[in-house]
Amino acid sequence: MSNTSFEFKDDSYSLAVDDMTCAHCVVSVENAALAVEGVYQARVILSEARVDISGGKPHEVIEAINAAGYVAKPLPKIPESCELGSADEAPEQNAPDVFSNAQDTASYQVDIADMTCSSCVANVEKAIRSVEGVSDAAVNLVEKKAWVTGGDPQTVVNAIVDFGYDASLSKIVTIEDRLFLTIAGRKTPALESLLGQLGHELEYEESTDGGLGASLKTSQHPAQLLLQLKQAGFEAEFKEQFEDPHRVQAEEARLEIRRAWQRAALAALVGIGLMAGDMSGFFPKLEAGSGQLFWGMMALVCLFTMWFSGHNYYNTAIKLAKHFSSNMDTLVALGTSAAWLSSAIIIVFPGFIPGGGNHLYLDASVMILAFLQFGHALETRAKRVTSEAIGALVQLAPKSAAVLLEDQEIQIPVSLLRKGDEVRVKPGETIPVDGEVVRGESSVDESMITGESLPVSKQVGDDVIGGTGNNNGSLIIQVTRLGAETTLSHIIGMVQQAQLSKPPIASLVDKVSSIFVPTVILISILTFIAWWILGPVPQLAYAFTTGIAVLVIACPCALGLATPIAIMVGTGRAAQLGILIRNSDALQSAARITHLVVDKTGTLTEGRPTITQIKCSDSLDERQLLEVALGLETGSAHPLAQAVLQSAQEQNIQAPACDDFRSITGMGVSGLIAQQRYYLGNEKLMLDQGLEMNPRWREFALEQAAQGGTPIWLASDKELLGLLILEDKIRDDTAEAISALHRLGIKVVMCTGDFHKTADAVGQSLGIDTVHSELLPEQKLSIINELQKNGHKVGMVGDGVNDAPALAQADTGFAIGSGTDVAIEHADITLVGDSLISVGTAIAISSATLRNIKQNLFGAFVYNVIGIPLAAGLFYPMTGWLLNPMFASFAMAMSSVTVVSNANRLRFFQPIISKLK
After folding, report:
1. Of 235, 464, 661, 835, which sits most exposed with the smallest number of CB within 10 A?
2. How many angstroms separate the CA atoms of 821 and 196, rounded?
3. Residue 275 to residue 306: CA distance in whole angstroms
């Protein structure tokens, strides 16, 4: 030890230092710390592998000690007050919105160690938000991660470290310019010469399997490099440079579970041995002058067991106590320490408790830890299961791809692909990355991404999604998106952000958690005093029993886990069903929807209309009419325009030049073709131009509209020229989806710009509750506002730019995945598929998740409300019940396990149509 005159002050903190072995190490560490600007005292404690510091910035001291050859990291430093503010004062807890901008470099993840409860979460959030430029932060206790928007990343990490938690930026997978190869055989001059021509900065190493490892930098495409090696007679392959983080997390969880089982096994062995020996009479009685040596040895065995099985609880409790703070570890440390200390006192002074029969609590001191570690093992395993949703999404994409180069297939890691590469996907293989089909035809199973059970036909020009399965044909795809740009990466990113978010219902938990542990300690002290003064003989024995039981039965962990564990499982399961929930606010609002507003085209229908009937005036024929319509619709992005484009393409009609194109919102389009003004749109557009409608055509249009067709009129500025009837087939599952929504108690409102007769026909055939037709986008907004004024919770489903305002206004906005980026950006929930069934499933899983959170919170509150009075002996006068501390600890461990297990039921949630069937 050095600098024994060290005095803890307001700016003092402690660091753990590994690799110190002697007095020389102590001097080196102390000198390194004192050399940092601002540090004015340092004390190194070799036996505890610790250094106490006053002054300076912790992260700078850590860097200095590391530079001296030792490994330093912070020990948790908790502020004196960790109370959370009121709901009104608390900052928004929603995770940053990243789906609309997956490349947002202002957002980043931070890995944080040493967090154990909701108080730690509050402390880390305070540290992050104290950094200048940080606009949002969300901390997840289960994943031990924070997602931060704004601020300098390293400054944020330093702020967390300075607050006493070990933190680091999450590793971001990037493609390095150095390639790593494994080459069959050994190094030869010919190989060295070839590699020297292909790249530079060569490095070699012997491979464990007898081959040769090589790395180099090159400007060549990785596939080209492998091809040249192959043509020269060398067999080589690239080594995958990136480790799957979910596999690493699974391994860490496995080790943590094994450690917990080992600690539980030792504590249980010692505790059961003590109980068996004592109850069988095999152990000597503890009396003055006899048995003290034996029981003293047993006390030392229990002390070692407590250190081995519970040192993590004691270390954390001591650190928190230095700053007048507490958490669950404090309760465990106090309970087990009180049990052991009271037993040690009785061993040294038999008869200390008058009439108490020299009852010892040594078995309780270790059995409490056995139950807790047993519960921790089960809880860790259950938590790992909750993270499998993202892990399963990551596993969808293969790790390698067959690149076509000079008529040959070259297998390279997906991480080394480049945009524009052509990749072959054989029947039965998984598509490795997002791309466009350039050759071949096949059907693709997109169920793992979109939730759609039927395969989707793909041909030249169609987009394909990485992670989906190729069925029966061979495809050549051109890579269009890589890394964070891919659909799968967007899905994973959105799921992670939703899991980090905190719903409004969690604000009550934050308030309770901030005062829970101090309240329990106070209750324990009052219980001890009450039994000591008012209890039966032996009062002191009863006081110890009840006081310890109160400490170990209370469980803030169940409260802290209730909300995040349910959100993690619920949003993960939703993602597997093709439903991407932006944050927990959307989860809560979706569960309360009473009315769902839907568009017609592309939502209720397939969104691929076709021309079924054409009426022409005497001044032009069908081909000329389509030619004019094509010229006008070429500049339009409306789904109905696609019908005109498709029909013209089938007849090889070329679009004429169109000048002064105008899109007339809610009515149609107009433009100049050969110096003549033309109008194409609905009847309202024709009437606005003062044109006279043909009675026979109008009657025909009404008949077709009553059967679900959409009349589109063509006119010049002088006369009506023709009528086109467009039909957009209703999706096969739309009626079933609406029926399912009705079963959920939700009223469906259709808002469309389509002709009123067409809208009424569709609404009637599907059983839609309310139909609004011939609407402008702003009128959709008015209808949503009116519903909300009447106290209804409104959801809106849309897929186009004109739906964006309504999606933003609705309580919950649902964007169809095939819709525009603007619609998706304004939505709360994105449906990867196109079916309305997914909306019902999204609402159902949101309701199930919210219900699960309430069940968890109810269980955690009720457990503590019943358990603490029971442990305190409140029912003893009436029932004679008194809870043994070791059984209290078992109940505490099982409360957390129960919460996690209940949340995991959401993993088995089935789509709503499956449940109805």
Report:
1. 235
2. 47
3. 16
Instruction: Out of 254-268, 457-471, 843-857, pick the least confident.
Output: 457-471
Task: Give the separation between CA 642 and CA 605, rounded to whole angstroms.
Answer: 14
Q: Decide: 362 and 396 in contact? Cβ < 8 Å.
A: no
- Yes or no: say if 541 and 564 are a contact pair by the CB < 8 Å rule: no
In this structure, are residues 184 and 237 in contact, taking their beta carbons and an 8 Å threshold?
no
Ranges of H-type helices in 501-608:
507-534, 539-553, 556-576, 584-590
Task: Write out the catalytic residue numbers.
Answer: 599
CA–CA–CA angle 711, 712, 718 (5° rounding): 125
The pLDDT, as a whole number, for residue 709 is: 82
Strands lying side by side in the sheet with 39-45: 39-45, 50-55, 12-18, 71-74
Q: Residue 233: left (phi > 0), alpha (psi -120 to 50), or beta? A: left
CB 146 within 8 Å of CB 128 = yes
Length of the chain: 917
For residue 796, give the DSSP letter: E
- Whether 301 shows a pLDDT value over 90: the answer reads yes
Nearest-5° Cα angle at 158, 153 to 160: 100
Contacts of residue 790, defined as CB under 8 A and 6 or more positions apart, other chains included, come to none
**Mean pLDDT of the chain, nearest integer:** 77
> Which residue matches tokens 């710390």?
33
Task: List, as one string, the DSSP characters of 152-190.
Answer: -HHHHHHHHHHTT--EEEPP-----SEEEEEESS---HH
Dihedral angle, C-alpha 652, 653, 656, 661, nearest 10 °: -110
Nearest Cα to Cα of residue 61 among 171, 152, 164, 131: 164
Of 318-332, 620-634, 708-722, give the lowest mean pLDDT range. Answer: 318-332
The residues near 821 (Cβ < 8 Å, ≥ 6 apart) are 100
Task: State the pLDDT confidence band at 793, using cuts at 50, 70 and 90.
Answer: very high
Q: What sign results for the dihedral spanned by CA atoms 404, 406, 410, 416?
A: negative
Interatomic CA distance for residues 696 and 557, integer angstroms? 75
What six digits make up the tokens of 908?
């088995």
User: What whole-number distance in Å separates Cα of residue 13 and Cα of residue 15?
Assistant: 7
Q: How many CB atoms lie within 10 A of CB 597?
A: 27
Per residue, the 3-state secondary structure of 729-774, as one string, reads: CECCCHHHHHHHHHHCCCEEEEECCCCHHHHHHHHHHHCCCEEECC
Q: Which of 57, 167, 86, 153 is nearest to 120 (CA)?
A: 167
Could you write out the three-class secondary structure of 839-902? HHHHHHHHHHHHHHHHHHHHHHHHHHHHHHHHHCCCCHHHHCCCCCHHHHHHHHHHHHHHHHHH
Contact assessment for residue 137 and residue 147, using Cβ atoms and an 8 Å cutoff: yes
- 734: pLDDT strictly greater than 70: yes
CA 510 – CA 501 distance, rounded (Å): 14
Per DSSP, what are the bridge partners of residue 107?
A: 149
Compute the distance between CA of residue 119 and CA of residue 115 in angstroms, rounded to an integer.
Answer: 9
Q: What is the pLDDT of residue 444?
A: 84
| H or E segment to which residue 224 belongs | helix 222-231
Handedness of CA 664, 667, 671, 675 (dihedral sign): negative
For 14, 120, 194, 394, the CA distances from 144, given in Å and listed in that order, are 22, 10, 48, 19
pTM above 0.90, yes or no: no
- Summarised one tens digit per residue, pLDDT across range 804-840 is 677 778 888 887 765 444 445 556 787 877 778 888 8
Farthest-apart Cα atoms in the chain, separation = 125
Phi-psi region of 185 (alpha: psi -120 to 50; beta: other; left: phi over 0): left
Report the alpha-carbon distance of residue 499 to residue 497 in Å, rounded. 5
Q: Does residue 460 or residue 887 have the better pLDDT? A: 460
